[in-house]
Sequence to fold (225 residues):
Amino acid sequence: DAKTTQPPSMDCAEGRAANLPCNHSTISGNEYVYWYRQIHSQGPQYIIHGLKNNETNEMASLIITEDRKSSTLILPHATLRDTAVYYCIVRASNAGNNRKLIWGLGTSLAVNP
Amino acid sequence: ETGVTQSPTHLIKTRGQQVTLRCSSQSGHNTVSWYQQALGQGPQFIFQYYREEENGRGNFPPRFSGLQFPNYSSELNVNALELDDSALYLCASRATGALGYTFGSGTRLTVV
Fold:
């Protein structure tokens, strides 16, 4: 079972920031938080990941709470092309058999004109 | 271009048949994973290969098997197809130390 919970759907106006929350209250100390998105009829696309510090790249920012039990993905200026299902995943970084990404149902983000 | 190419894009098979799905990854992507995604669901992990050896498996029966080749290509084989095997099958690969997996666009398998 997925170790994350996300709202099933969200709306955002084009040009505004989209803030997508994720709860991962049972996260372990060695588990990273990963975000992927899946645009309709395409394969998932990696967005960003982090352990405990906030992270930013050209696509998004990731804010992780101090207790690491939740995080927020921020798309600073959402465009229509950001309409997709966004998945929050926790995954251990160490080697071994615990390599799989366990996906929940994600959040379906609709960016509206 | 994602760098991961899957073939075919769509496929229709009959229950009981066997199918082979193919994936071609970028050079240096020595880890490949396969996922099954039913409509409206998140991807489910099938198995993973690293340098041609299986090193992780999800809750799928043995009739799901795979191979990884030295040229960074891989296969997913499914025997004795069942109607519930109808899904999008995704291949994902990464190089050691890469930030995330690169996914292909998938193969849509329909079993009738």
Notes: The interface with chain A takes residues 2, 4, 33, 35, 40-45, 48, 55-56, 58, 90, 92, 99-106 of chain B (CB under 8 Å).
